[in-house]
Each structure stands twice: as C-alpha cells, then as structure tokens.
Amino acid sequence: MLEDLHIASIVVSTIRNAPVLMFAAMAGLFAERSGVVDIGLEGKILASAFVSAAVAYVTKNPYYGVLAAILVSSALAMIQAFVSITQKGNQLVAGIAINIAMSGLTFVVAQFFFQQGGRTPELGDARLPEVILPGAAALENVPFIGWFYGHVIGGHSILVYLAFLLLPIVHWVLYHSRFGLRLRACGENPHAADAAGVSVERTRYMAMLVAGVLCSFSGAYLAIVQSGFFLRDMSAGAGYLALTALVFGNWRPLQTVLGCLMFGFFSAVQIQIEGVDLPVVGRIPGSLIQMIPYVVTVVVLAGLMAKSVAPKAIGKPFVKSR
C-alpha cells in the first residue's frame, strides 16, 4: 500500500508543514514590497500562537482563537508600522524588538494564567477539525486514488486550504489591482509614487495591516492545528525561514511559495529519518537531523542572496519631498 511508504508520509507532511511558512512569507511579501522590512514576523507568529491557543482553550472554540490571533497580530503590526513609517525609526530594530518582547511576554503570560511551565493546556476538541471530502471513505481502499483524494487533497484543516488559495489571490492583488500597483511603486520608488498622488504612508500602513492579518494565521495554525497547545518559542525560527523563502522567491508569490514547500519538504524528511538506520551512515543523531532546515537556509542564502533583487526602497523611511 502506498500509505505504508515513507514517500507518502513525506508528501502529506510537506503539505501540512508548509502553511506556517506560507502565511508568514505572504505577510512579509506585502510588507517588504511596500518598502518595510518585516523582521518582526517571528514575534507576531509567537503572539498569535499563544493568544489563539489560550482563547481556543478557554472558549472551547478554535474560531474564536483565530479571531483573537488576528486582532493581536494586527495590533503588533500597527505598532511596528507606527515606529517604522510614522516615526521613521530603524525598521530592523523595530522588528527585532517585537521578536524579543513576544518571546519573553508569551512565556510569562502563559505561566501566569496556566502555571504549566509557560505553555497552555492541551486543546483537545478545541483544535480546528480536518475537512473530510465527500466520498473519501468509499475511495479509501482504491490504490493511490484513495490516498491522494483522502490525504493529499483532503484531510486537512481549513487553514491549509486557505494557505494554498492565497497564492492566486496574492498574485492577482499584487500584479492586477490598483492597490498592488501602488504597493509596488512605494517599494520601488516612493518619491515617484508620491508625485503621482499616492499616499506612501497610507499604502505602507495598509500593507502592514495585511501582513499582520496573514501572519496571525501562521501562529494560529501552529498552535491550534499542528501542535494543539502553545509552547515557549514554538515557532522555532519560522519567521526567519519565511524571510529566507522571500529571498529564494525573489519577492514573488509563486517562487516564494515554492521556497516554503521546499522548507516544508526538508522538515518532513527530518521527521522521517529521525531514529532510522540509514544505509552506510547508520543512525544519524537527532540533533544533526534537526539542523537540516537551517543548513538548507544557509545554503539558500549563500547561493541566492547575490542573485535576488529586493525592492529598491526597502528599509528606507520615506521623507516627503518639499
């Protein structure tokens, strides 16, 4: 049976691992295309993960958890936007400050409310349910088709489908809408956009708000779909991996999603080979296996950083010409 093969598990795991990075990468895409460096993705993921898990546990409703994550992540995005856009502050420092603050604050608040070592209780039935496609049970025993229909296409939470649906939506918004045109203009040449009557600050604020909403789905997915609880620093660098996917994808939606799938694939491989005796090399220590996604990150950055072309105005505060 195909289900018994490791490749089948790797494919399904890749699909389930990728949304955390896809949501964060699409968030970073909007922010950075507008000219704002979004190093704060990691902190917003952590805040969203904690709030979604806490609210879902208390209310026993995962959808309330997702809504709470949207509110918190959007609030953080607006704080970051105020410092970076209105106050013309250093965008890198603003993002790193959010990451550090959320790393500590989520742990302290979780410990204060739940007294479980900085984590939330298991969510149980408060997790987002899997979508079972019509006819999946009838096709279950059909070779390949049953597995593909029931486990590759079906069997995921609604956030997984939303993550993949984002690709055509983001592509259309970025390249075929007035907002996308203004967004790219603000990231490439904000002074020309300003001369054409576009409010650069307003456009960047809107981009950061969209980034905050998208990033909230990443944290919510991590807590109430993948793990079923919140744990300190559970994002494990997902925000930085998402930024790497942006570099890999040259700040374009399709290529960025492919980068996210690549990292999701290596994470799936890491899980599959952990504790397995491999030919020639034998059993690889778990600590070395856990390094795989990060080694891939370094290789990608070293090989592609020189070839990637970032938006020209990225990281530069806009000062209106007089």
Automatic annotation (TrEMBL):
InterPro entries reported in the protein's UniProt record:
ABC_transp_permease
According to the record, the segments passing through the membrane are: 6-29, 64-85, 92-114, 148-174, 205-224, 230-249, 256-273, 288-306
Query: What's a GO cellular component annotated to this UniProt protein?
Result: plasma membrane
Q: Does the keyword Transmembrane apply?
A: yes
Q: Name one Pfam family in it.
A: BPD_transp_2
Q: Which GO terms describe its molecular function?
A: transmembrane transporter activity
How does the protein associate with the membrane?
A: Multi-pass membrane protein
Which keywords accompany this UniProt record?
A: Cell membrane, Membrane, Transmembrane, Transmembrane helix
Query: Where found?
Result: Cell membrane
Q: Which PANTHER family match?
A: GUANOSINE ABC TRANSPORTER PERMEASE PROTEIN NUPQ, SUGAR ABC TRANSPORTER INTEGRAL MEMBRANE PROTEIN-RELATED
What is this protein's record name? ABC transporter permease
